[in-house]
Amino acid sequence: MASIKINLNGQNSFLSKLKDGNSAHLEKLSAAQFMQVWEHYDEDGNGYIEGSELDGFLKEYITTVDADGAVKSTFTDKELQDLREKFMEAYDDNKDGKIEIRELAQLLPMEENFLLLFRFDNPLESSVEFMKIWKTYDTDHSGYIEADELKNFLRDILKGASKSQEVTEDMLIEYTDTMLNVFDTNKDGKLQLSEMTKLLPVKENFLTRQVFKGSSGVGKEDIEKVFALYDRDNSGTIENEELHGFLKDLLSLAKKDYDSKDLKEFHDAIMKGCDSNKDGKISKKELTMILMALAEQTGGQ
């Protein structure tokens, strides 16, 4: 069986360059150092460490971070596969078979304040909350979260973390620059809607559930659940940020990358076809029409 030679002491690995000189362990990484690690292992820049990138990271991680003198210097293909499976079971939170940046942040030693920006113990319940936050920080109503607005957002996150140490203005600037490097995938110096969703995750897009793929599976109970999810103020209609949150989730099923202009155009198209009483809101009856149309459209996919 084939075997793979790896460096026992990790002296030639990228991670070994970041080790504490007085110990065998990684030092706490700054925001800039973490970004260097991410860019090194995400070789194709697609936002994930996967495939051969993941194998390379695993071999260097096990010999650099976990090295205790008992680590083997060679692995058979089977042993590497077992190692990968155990590692991913422990760290691949969303079980997609690859490491995303939030997961990497949880397994590497990092500065406490910067790590807090990746920790959301309670993800947003729905995109309604997301759109409220978006409206709060898009203070110039440009349809983007620009650098200064992102800095204010990060400042408020850290301010709300009771155990965080004092964050200086220089640190905030560094954190903002790093977050833009990570999440600004089109490199225009600001975050559009789809980019911000990766920084501020929602627990689940309910509309991706299998029940909405095929009109025969959509029942009254399903429609009631969706309506309750978006009608947060129990007014009997889906409106304002509730409507924007619902449409954002709907739009994300069709487009991976989208901005506020896309959302506005999508809003106009949906409301033109489904807002039968032209009140600018979505009633339960109108929602039923939309969900049935969604199920029919995706039923064959």
Overview in brief:
The protein is mainly α.
Keywords:
single chain; 301 residues; Recoverin, domain 1; 3 domains; two-stranded antiparallel sheet; 50% helix
Major sheet = 2 strands, antiparallel
What is the CATH superfamily of the largest domain?
EF-hand
Neighbour order of strands in the largest sheet: 1-2
Number of DSSP helical runs: 13
Portion in strands: under 5%
What's the layout of helices and strands?
Blueprint (H helix, E strand, L loop, with lengths): L2 E3 L25 H11 L10 H13 L9 E3 H15 L9 H7 L4 H5 L10 H11 L7 E2 H13 L9 H15 L6 E2 L1 H7 L20 H11 L10 H12 L7 H15 L9 H15 L3
Antiparallel strand pairs: 1-2, 3-4
Helix pairs in contact: 6-11, 7-8, 11-12
Structure notes:
With about 300 residues, the protein is mostly helical. It folds into 3 domains: about 5-110, Recoverin, domain 1 (Orthogonal Bundle), CATH 1.10.238.10; about 120-200, EF-hand (Recoverin, domain 1, Orthogonal Bundle), CATH 1.10.238; about 205-300, Recoverin, domain 1. The protein is about 50% helix and about 5% strand. It contains 13 helices and 4 strands. It has helices at about 30-40, 50-65, 75-90, 100-105, 110-115, 125-135, 145-160, 170-185, 195-200, 220-230, 240-250, 260-275, 285-300; strands at about 5, 75, 145, 190. The strands form 2 sheets. The protein has a two-stranded antiparallel ribbon with strand order 1-2. A two-stranded antiparallel ribbon has the order 3-4. Helix 7 (about 145-160) packs across helix 8 (about 170-185) and helix 11 (about 240-250) packs across helix 12. The longest helix is centred in the first third of the chain and has 15 residues, at about 75-90.
